[in-house]
């Protein structure tokens, strides 16, 4: 494992930051973990609450197999040990967002054991971050304090939704590594399809454990900053919290093990709860549920349904398709991009043209989408139409310049490129007779310049090319124009 | 009271089918009996409309030839089962006014089988108690009295004390009960009726107010073994809404009844002979063994060495689960809410639970909270689970040698109300013979064996292998036939 050189300078010298992350990822599933109620984001408050979520008397949890399956697939994608025997425990505490008075979680026997993630922090060598465990648990409801002057409201739509808690080892040493870890984890989850990774909607949030030490010293006391909901905030929270701890230590103080909150407006963390008033959660195995035992057929299906993951895909793009490291990176970072690119390749049906396709996607398509403020999901151009367009370039029907024009029209009208070319007569002319005829006209209209050229003014060649292309409204095959001009002028 | 209230489940079923009487007549006779028995305090809610409608449906079904297994049978429903549109309180103030919008798995099956509900039966609060004295709505009084002019009000047993009293007093031929550590068997023994707790998982727990999830099991109570078999067939079966529900076919237990025990071995566990046990119970136990021998069985002495640890383990595990299961009663969504002026959320919880739960429920919540708390968990909860595993192993080893076990159901006959209410430990000892099979999840039943010197019923318990309700019922039937128990309480209410 390569060590980052990230250090924070204090009054007493350089400090090292030690970071571990607990990422809560909402499992992609139509139904909650134990109740069968729907899970769609943005529904009216309390519209997605079953009798079980509301903890009515006599209601019982029944595990949703799809949620378990997604967590197992996630574990497999992280090269983790899948525990064929796991169990749910109750975490007991009273709060208004927790109707049962306990959260069903997994303390003693989690579904997924040790695994790892490869990260490539910006400008640093690749590094392996250990995963300690993944367990499955219920989310709580949401308190709404802004609906009424004196009352708080409770929305239970989220209560009982399945979460994976993905716990890393304290292996990260800089905000950049933590950022790279969250980005990579998010990418993998989205590839696997087990979490949509939408941090704004709260589908993914991180509890950030931070401590500081002098390089080589044992771990310091850590604090836990809860519910940080963007990569940028994770990095900012670490930076602030590390600096705060160093200031405390250098002033002769000690770090209190406590829970903190990140305030994104101020960029600071604040104490929420210290160890003294920590809850005693009285964890014990949930007697309403049998232990979870996974059979080989279930595990085989989970394994077989895993897609190619970003690292493998990137290697294949570089080694198999010959893409540059940069292009392979860009095209594999997000599952949607890779999916779109591969749909395009399938339409093209010839991997030897993958490099040209990759260049076009990254420069032309991404540029256009950027300009239009749209994403690949609602791209006005389909992979099929893009393949047609690239095909027209490859077979010489369109020059690169004409292709750009056709692409602009595609973006505006949504029409297919062959239709556009046909209807607007944008086809490139490779008819040498026609080209020779136009060149003849250009040369006779510029007899003086022809004489100058033949007298040694080589630079005038470009002028003749320009005149010819202009006379042909840009549709002449530029290579042919060059070739014929050379022949006619020099010949 | 009408003759019809003396009939059992099978007799009513067969009589309606034969046209000896209408289901309507049966229902009306029982409604009248319930209305006239307020002194027993067995019913918390009476639902004459429900039972009469079911009776009319049964009479129509008879005409149409579409009678169901329990068509025309009026039953009582323990108030632990959620019933649509009918208040369900678990005999606690904290659920006062709670009217479910959903039907429990067990009551739904009974109604689907054609049964009608006479009302909701009183019980120990949240099924925590052995005398019915923890009910928030006043205890049930047993219809039985000691002979010789002793008019002391007696306990009907608990927690299913409303069920046992109502059946013994001929207010209903059968009722639902639930058994966590003996709550079907001990009240059955106290009132001279039969009751079976099936294998854990046979009956759905969905819609039954939870006490201790890993132990709670519904079962029937009735005046004969056959009636218990009929009821259990209707109540049992897989319910996918309960993750601990057994995925196994429901045998035709009634059809399989057979009192001939030739080739069967009956174990007598020596550890059940406790010092304080009255001589009459010991004598009845011996008599029971002779009856089973007479029915063809071989009697074998067996040992269940960890029996003495069962009660302490039970009183750790059950309260631990209860302390968590009862956290949902917080005054927010249903039932009672106490909101003192200016109270915050935590204060509302505290006030609601202080006012809503009775003292025994609070005691168990506190015990359960304590045994699960950091630093005590291993010493209590983990240790109790180890004991539970050892008790299961004891039974496994015994059942390698014998088919069923015979024990007394309870260490005493019914005691007077008030006698033990100040001494929780004395009260807990009532469960000493019933708790081990609960911890092991095994089927067990109580059958009346005779009367003690005071004229009060005593019960014998049969414990069987997991899933072998048939073996339990058959041994129970043999006991029933030999005991010839016909005693019934004289009506004073």
UniProtKB/TrEMBL annotation, chain A:
List the molecular function annotations (GO) for this entry. asparaginyl-tRNA synthase (glutamine-hydrolyzing) activity; glutaminyl-tRNA synthase (glutamine-hydrolyzing) activity
| EC class | ligase
Q: Which reaction equation describes what this protein catalyses?
A: L-glutamyl-tRNA(Gln) + L-glutamine + ATP + H2O = L-glutaminyl-tRNA(Gln) + L-glutamate + ADP + phosphate + H(+); L-aspartyl-tRNA(Asn) + L-glutamine + ATP + H2O = L-asparaginyl-tRNA(Asn) + L-glutamate + ADP + phosphate + 2 H(+)
* InterPro entries in alphabetical order: Asn/Gln-tRNA_amidoTrfase_suB/E (IPR017959), Asn/Gln-tRNA_Trfase_suB/E_cat (IPR006075), Asn/Gln_amidotransferase (IPR018027), Asn/Gln_tRNA_amidoTrase-B-like (IPR003789), GatB (IPR004413), GatB_C_1 (IPR042114), GatB_Yqey_C_2 (IPR023168), Gln-tRNA_amidoTrfase_suB_CS (IPR017958)
- Domain named Asn/Gln amidotransferase is located at 339-489
Can you tell which superkingdom this protein's organism belongs to?
Answer: Bacteria
Residues forming coiled coils: none
**Keyword set, alphabetical order:** ATP-binding, Ligase, Nucleotide-binding, Protein biosynthesis
> Has UniProt tagged this entry with the keyword Kinase?
no
TM ranges = none
What EC number is given for this enzyme?
6.3.5.-
Tell me which HAMAP family the record gives.
GatB (MF_00121)
Q: How does it assemble?
A: Heterotrimer of A, B and C subunits.
- Give the protein's biological function: Allows the formation of correctly charged Asn-tRNA(Asn) or Gln-tRNA(Gln) through the transamidation of misacylated Asp-tRNA(Asn) or Glu-tRNA(Gln) in organisms which lack either or both of asparaginyl-tRNA or glutaminyl-tRNA synthetases. The reaction takes place in the presence of glutamine and ATP through an activated phospho-Asp-tRNA(Asn) or phospho-Glu-tRNA(Gln).
Q: Which family is it part of?
A: Belongs to the GatB/GatE family. GatB subfamily.
Q: What is this protein called?
A: Aspartyl/glutamyl-tRNA(Asn/Gln) amidotransferase subunit B
- Source organism per entry reads Sphingomonas jejuensis
TrEMBL record, chain B:
Q: Which SUPFAM superfamilies does the annotation name?
A: Amidase signature (AS) enzymes
Q: Which residues form the signal peptide?
A: none
Offer an example of a GO molecular function term for this protein.
asparaginyl-tRNA synthase (glutamine-hydrolyzing) activity
Q: Name one Pfam family in it.
A: Amidase
Where does the Amidase domain lie?
29-473
Residues the record marks as active site: 78, 159, 183
Give the enzyme's main class according to its UniProt record, as a single word.
ligase
What family classification does the UniProt entry report for this protein?
A: Belongs to the amidase family. GatA subfamily.
Cite the record's note on assembly. Answer: Heterotrimer of A, B and C subunits.
Name the UniProt record assigns to this protein: Glutamyl-tRNA(Gln) amidotransferase subunit A
Q: Which organism is it from?
A: Sphingomonas jejuensis
User: Gene name on record?
Assistant: gatA
